[in-house]
Amino acid sequence: MRKILLFLIIISFISCSEKSELSNAFNCESTNNALKKTITDFNKNFEIDIPAHWKTELYYSQSSSEIYSADTTKQLTETYILDVSQNLGELNLDDAFFKKNDSILAKKNLLKINSKNITFREKEAYYYITQEIKQNFIVNRLNLLIKTSTNQYISAYCEVYGKDQIEERLCDGISVLNTIKFLD
Fold it and tell me: Which pLDDT does position 58 carry in this prediction?
């Protein structure tokens, strides 16, 4: 009986935990409760909890270390794709950055739907959502930039193909992005 009571207390504590600013920005209530595996990037700068059955690839170069993951058991229009990378370089989330970013988006014919400065795990961050047509699909992409130090930042995205359950799939992706842990 005590074990059951302890289990219920732990579950209620976890379910009542405070939502991230990113989850609040999208009004996400759901969390992805799939069995997870913790993946550490090649350079051991960060780790993230990815659904255990997903196909995951690690990439690295002199200036970045990347985790790319997707559920290859579902149709592209039923899931989402995640990419998280630690990058060397300075990230200043100032007016010059926003102008340059908007210019790049316009040049690529990407429609910026929403954007906001936030705090992510006590770090300065910025997200923006774009929409485009790719391979005859509507693609909504949540881009998240997190300044981790003066000369490093994390760039992450969640890409949702199609027009069904966009918010739900973005929220599932956000629940995975919320598991990012900085290791340095």
Answer: 97
Q: Specify the pLDDT at position 32.
A: 64
pLDDT for 25: 86
Closest CA to 121 of 47, 40, 57, 65: 47
Task: Give the count of alpha carbons within 13 A of 119, CB side only.
Answer: 4
Domain boundaries defined on the chain:
20-182
> Pairing between strand 181-182 and 111-120?
unpaired
Q: To which CATH superfamily is domain 20-182 assigned?
A: Mog1/PsbP, alpha/beta/alpha sandwich (3.40.1000.10)
pLDDT greater than 80 at residue 13:
no
Q: Are 83 and 160 in contact (CB under 8 A)?
A: no
Strand partners, 12: none
- Considering the entire predicted model, what is its pTM? 0.86
